[in-house]
UniProtKB/TrEMBL annotation:
Cofactor field: Mg(2+)
Enzyme active site: 117
One CC-aspect GO term: cytoplasm
GO molecular function: ATP binding; metal ion binding; nucleoside diphosphate kinase activity
Similarity section: Belongs to the NDK family.
Name the UniProt record assigns to this protein: Nucleoside diphosphate kinase
EC numbers: 2.7.4.6
SUPFAM superfamilies named among the record's database cross-references: Nucleoside diphosphate kinase, NDK
InterPro entries cross-referenced by the UniProt entry: NDK-like_dom (IPR034907), NDK-like_dom_sf (IPR036850), Nucleoside_diP_kinase (IPR001564), Nucleoside_diP_kinase_AS (IPR023005)
Keyword vocabulary terms for this entry: ATP-binding, Cytoplasm, Kinase, Magnesium, Metal-binding, Nucleotide metabolism, Nucleotide-binding, Phosphoprotein, Transferase
A GO biological process held by the record: UTP biosynthetic process
Amino acid sequence: MAATRTFSIIKPDATRRNLTGAVTKMLEDAGLRVVASKRIQMTREQAEGFYAVHKERPFFGELVDFMISGPVVVQVLEGEDAVARNRKVMGATNPADADEGTIRKTYAESIEANSVHGSDSEENAKTEIAFFFDEDEIVG
Ligand code: ATP
Ligand code: MG
């Protein structure tokens, strides 16, 4: 199967604990290649826009507050079946339910402060990549 792309965020709970490298190593060990990466402080508007699909969920306000509570690292990952591959190494949303050896089982603090985001479909990956990156910032 040809290489595809997905979008990843190393969330503020992980950057705060200096885990950018440790999380990235788990992504790389899972067969994903970082083809774009930048450390940014998201604005409230960016976080609200990015998580707009969750607008009606009861945790939306807290989620936005959390995502702007510190820097994040936004990344484009490339690999065979990248979306599913990334979701597998991330583990379940709630770290209590995540499999051993996954990023969330290893590092997440809670269902909210769960260390990483990953696109859940190829279509959403394209939208999310375009939200943060110009095509000339992605170098495979
Ligand atoms: P992500 O989209 O960040 O990769 P996900 O797809 O596993 O995570 P979603 O259901 O899309 O999970 O939820 C988005 C994010 O909202 C979660 O990663 C988590 O940070 C937060 N979240 C989800 N459910 C809850 C909850 N019940 N309480 C608090 N925060 C939550
Ligand atoms: Mg999601």
